[in-house]
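#lab-general

N.A. 3:47 PM
ok so I finally got the sequence cleaned up, no stray characters, all 636 residues accounted for. can someone with queue access submit it? mine expired

B.Y. 3:52 PM
send it over

N.A. 3:53 PM
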Amino acid sequence: MALIPDDFIQDLLNRVDIVDVIERYVPLKKAGQNYMACCPFHKEKSPSFTVSQTKQFYHCFGCGVHGSALTFVMEHQALSFPEAVRQLAESVGMSVPVSDKPMTAEQKKAPGIYDVLKIAFDFYRAQLKTAPAAIDYFKRRGVTGKTAAKFGLGYAPGGDDWQPLKAVYPDYDWNVLLAEAGLVIDKEESKRRYDRFRERVMFPIINQRGQVIGFGGRVMGQGEPKYLNSPETPVFTKGRELYGLPQARTAIRDHNRVLVAEGYMDVVMLHQHGVEYAVASLGTACTPEHVRKLLKLADEVVFGFDGDKAGIKAAWRALENSLPEVKDGKELKFLFLPAEHDPDSYVQAFGREQFELLISETALPLSQYLLKELAGQVDLTMEEGRARLVHIARPYLDELTQAPILKLMLGKRLAEMCQLSSAEFASLQVASAPPKVLEAQSSWAVEPALSDWQAPQQWQQTKPARRESFARSGGYQRGKGKGWKMEEPRPRLKPAGRHDPVLRVLQLVLFRPSILVGQETLELSWSTDGLAGVARAVLAIARQSADLQGTELLERCRELPAYPSLIQILTESRALFEKFDEEELQVEIANSLLAATQNLSLGSTLSRKEELDILSASRGLTDEESQEYLALLLRH
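B.Y. 4:20 PM
back already:
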């Protein structure tokens, strides 16, 4: 994927009218100079979502979301930055250019992989029409022709032919993209290749732009593995994609609910019977990335699992991965089907109304499910058991970094269960708080380039409490010795709104300069003064070489006036990010770049008082900002 020039993005925003863009999704009503509506990002009865046509800016005074037409499309449609730019450009007849910056090897591969996957998609669909066994399988499962067409179902032939795809790829034997797309397997010892999918009904996996990025194949009778998915490729990552999301998007928005099932057929049959807001994870547990994406689309996320041991284990994994992503005002629920059913069989047996009634009557909210499962591991009639519950529950509550209200209510409920007052429970939390391992304050040199930037007062990173691994049957797992077997979770970042996103970008880039590969050069629109100017200079140096280490980048920044402060930031960044994997870092840098760009552009379109109004609604004001706001009020 090539880079989109910044001047094109500015030209695009100049050509579109934010009112026209938002009205495609939300009905707006004129209110003075602005437009009003009920916020599409959270439930509300009275409108608090305002759109300024003169400033080309939207803001919700209820939940604090704000941004431009481009930001709205990204958030409302859960699209990446490049995808949102292309969609917005197409709406006004603009063609998205690309910069002349060389693409990475991975970026060069992507378009070719999309092409070969589309050819395979057409081949598998065509094969289904002439495969009686596959047609009979789908009929026995209750799939109609209309549903098969909606999901692009197909069939991969097999038998004695190990290379059916050779019929549509003349260069089958040497086309490297076939292997990179996961369509064939190369046998090293024999130097031969064969189709990955053979004698299976096929479920194409489609991304938000309608492109085929992978496949899932299911055997029609006996055989292992029952389901076979495409491997990870440059265009397909299981931890990010959800099966059926493009087909479910409209229903998710209409119902403000999304149901996450476990299998392809669950999604297909739920849609066929009217539960069209269903999606499925792709052979993996629901990841934090999945949860973030789903919470952007709906206020209610329901995880639907089979009632067997595998389903219960998957539900607990989903809960653990959801805790850091939960926000106040959002609902996560856990639905367990009767032991003899999965969503596919249940909806066929009882229909949509009964299935949705099952959700409303039996799905457990995250808070109830969490406390119910943890309480089941102790004896609440004994003081030791109640003490044990407090001990094992606290790490889970600590992960609710973006839901302070829910965390408070869970703490009160936990205190009641353990026969403690709220004050006693709070005192226990303070008494057992882990010691600070990092407490630092940036000591920036006072110089013209930085004089207009105020460093954060203080931030700290504490070592997370060790969280014990959960086993549904048999309680908490014991190790080889007498102690409990523990697993230490990866530390979670604090909510982005509590950090200066420009500083966060600096921390990330100094920690891992190569993280910028593939990221848009959004910093070119930033100011050249203050912290933003320092960040621009550092990012410019980092982008010159993709293989720099943090210390090497720091050495190349030696001539910058802020060099002493950059040393401290690099030290702090190691403590913050050393346990994060590459995927988490990529998500954080993309979000931070965008947030920094939005924050820096805010001051050019709003007065300082208006900016502080929005900051107050979205994240609250610091002491310095509060004093500044009071001074502005008195001045007027």
